[in-house]
Amino acid sequence: GEWGPSHRERIASRAQGVARHEQVDGQMEVQLGNVSTDLDLEQMGRFTYPIPLKLRDLQAMVRPFMEAGSVHHVAGLDAMTSELVRALLRLFLIVRAWDDCLVSRIGRVAEGEVSNNAAARTDALLDLCAMCDLDVFQAAHRLNRIDRGIFKITEMDIENICHKLPLFLDQRMLHGSATAAMDHALCGASASFSSGAGADRVAQDLIRHTTERHHTLDDRAGLAGTSKVVAIRSEGLRWWRKQGFSFAAPTGILTGALLTSVADSGLRPEARVSEMLPRVMDTLFGAQITCRSFMNRLLPGLGGYVNRAGEEVPFGEGLPVHTQPARCLETLTAFVEKWHDLVHAAEEEVAARAHRDRKKAEDPDDEVELYDDFMTRIMATGHSCQDVIELLEGAKPLPKHVLEGLPRNAARYRIDENMLRRWEILTDKYQDDLDRLENNSRDLGPYVHIRLDVELEEIAKQIGPISEV
Fold it and tell me: Fewer beta carbons within 10 angstroms: which end of the chain, N or C?
């Protein structure tokens, strides 16, 4: 690990000469001694915590309890540990991806400031705002709150950034967020594609396009030679704009537009696909789907099957609406087949829940009857509530015959693809939880930036008299 004992000792030895406190005119000054400017500041600012090593330590810690012949053997612990390690490692990769993107952009801002290159600094700020998904209003608000004694930025600079920001937001929409490589290359719990060389190629292309300077949406020459995923993302975004969709679109209208685009190519989707696709999309994405969800959630999940010609269609390459409408139709069919049963079950559960709510409102005593029936079934096992409490608190050990009688099912504690999709529906994973105002939904100014950290008289000069309450 980068933060091992040797690294700490090196920093400690340098720190011995860091602070020499001298009394000068009654003030304490801190002078830098033998510390060089290359004190690994960039490395210290990065997210370098050795999570993989800690996960390895976790596996070593519980290994005695996973040995089959051990008296301390816990059935299913190996499966639970592997799933926990996989989830924590994915979380670590997400945090590291965002950390790398933010650090690289902050570094570009610092380089433009040090080299006194205003154009480079402005581009770096634009890229940083686009990466954080700030619209023009949010960017102007936050840039105006910067302490200009620390970071010099003028009103003209802010106006220039707000003028160029929509183009950079388009570029960011095209190339995805900081985790675009993971969303595409690792999409699907049981995708064989995610473990092959193809995943590495897609990841490298998307990482390069995420961290480097981007082209415009119509710069097809700049996309030449890249992976198919990047080209299909460009095609998908162009199709979205061609349909006249802006920030978001109703899910039903989006589904109808997809089926219409396929039908315009002379292909006819099956009746089951035409019926179930709107229901599947409504269950997954809700009443509307944003452009960001379309690009970063729907597109990465389309694919991951073998077509009729026996060719593998990787995740993220299944929706070439204009160039390959036949593949697009196969992808939509496979998408419906994958979610059909779960959507049916979700709809039945929603209907049953609505029925229970109506019954509960009509007959409040029915809830008491359900509780009594539950307690009757619990007591029929021969265990009291106190027994359950003591077992949960560890005051009473589990009987040996219970532990030894566990079924030897290798898939009992493992997360398969079907379980993952059920969890995605239950938690509304694909539904957006933000409501962004459009240009016609609010007053666009002209705005006056008012600093609230000044005297009331200064504020009154801008907005008029202020009554003290």
Answer: C
